[in-house]
Every structure is written in C-alpha cells, then in structure tokens.
Design brief:
4 helices; four-stranded mixed sheet; RHF-like; SHC Adaptor Protein; 9 strands; alpha+beta; 2 domains; 189 residues
Length: 189
C-alpha cells in the first residue's frame, strides 16, 4: 500500500509519518482488505490543526474523513476515528462488494465546471447583461460505473451530499443525493 503524507505549509516529521502509516495499516487490515493507497494532508487553520484523509480501495471506492484539533496528532486521531467508524459501519457491505466485483470500477472522463455565483448588492439589483453564467474554472473529473447500492455507499463513505455515476445495469448517467429529510434520493433519467 502506498502512503502519501503531506503538509500544507507545515512540516510533517518522520515520527508523525510513521504513526500515520502504522495506525492506518492496522485499521485498514481490520475492515478493508485491499486498499491501494492513502493520502493524508495536514494543514493549520487558525489555532487548530486539520487532517484530511482519503483511502482508495482497489475496487474504486474511496473513504474520506476529516479531523480538527489543537494538536496535530489529535487531529489525525479524530480523522482516523471517523474513518474507523465509517468502515466499521459499512464492513459487511464492503465485504459483499468485494466478493461480487471481480474487476475494478470503470471510470469515464467528464468535464466539470465552476460557475460564478450571483452577487447582488443593495445598490445593484438590476438584471444581468446576459443569462449565460460566467465560467470560473474548468476541470476534468471521473464518473464511476457503479450499481445504485454501491453509489449510495460511495456517497456516504465520502461524506458527499451528491454523487453522479454511470448505472451499470442501465448504462445511463444517474444521480444519488441526500435529501433534506435525511433519506437518499435517486435520479434515473
């Protein structure tokens, strides 16, 4: 398994890297048998340290967790605890998923755009010159080919509010999202 442990404008020492590797490897042996790599990024936000951890599983699923604490080790422990809870919660589903899926998740390329939001000031409440939104950024993204159950699991593991995926059964683009009432919505055009 590959580990990438970095810091954003802070130095990550060898002791912290060793601690992160041993803790992650012991946790992942318990729950997810086939992780491929882990990215752990440490940063500082005010007086707090922030740890963002993403573990990529061999089937294409990702598990994401974020922790905040005044101490850098405590920030990692908070993120590891969240990831441990997620993996424990989905252990049975992950095992079933590994048995059913013999090949990795197929990824399809797509374009992703960031559009400028409308900024209305008190002085200016006039109509815009054009109804076309202003594109701030354009990026490449990957759309996984999953079943609906796998898409819901991936969305929950990543902590995302929405996931766009290609439905394996119907070969069309679908969306799952968390509704305001706490349930999961599924859009199948």
């Amino acid at each position: 398994m590959r580990y990438q442990i970095t810091g954003k404008q802070i130095d990550v020492g060898a002791s912290l890297q060793t601690h992160v590797e041993t803790e992650l490897s012991s946790m992942l042996e318990k729950y997810a048998g086939r992780p491929t790599d882990a990215n752990v990024i440490f940063s500082k936000s005010g007086h707090e340290h922030v740890c963002e951890a993403v573990v990529h599983l061999s089937t294409g699923l990702n598990c994401t967790a974020k922790g905040h604490a005044p101490d850098i080790y405590a920030a990692f422990e908070a993120a590891a605890e969240k990831m441990d809870k997620q993996l424990r919660r989905y252990k049975r589903r992950l095992k079933d998923h590994h048995k059913e899926r013999t090949v990795p998740v197929e990824l399809m390329g797509a374009s992703s755009y960031i559009l400028a939001g409308s900024r209305e000031s008190d002085e200016e409440s006039s109509e815009p010159d054009s109804l076309q939104p202003i594109i701030v950024a354009e990026m490449e993204t990957k759309i996984p080919s999953l079943s609906v159950g796998e898409a819901v699991m991936q969305m929950e593991l990543a902590g995302a509010p929405v996931l766009v995926f290609r439905n394996e059964k119907k070969d069309g683009v679908n969306v799952v999202y968390r509704r305001d009432d706490g349930n999961i919505g599924w859009i199948d055009p």
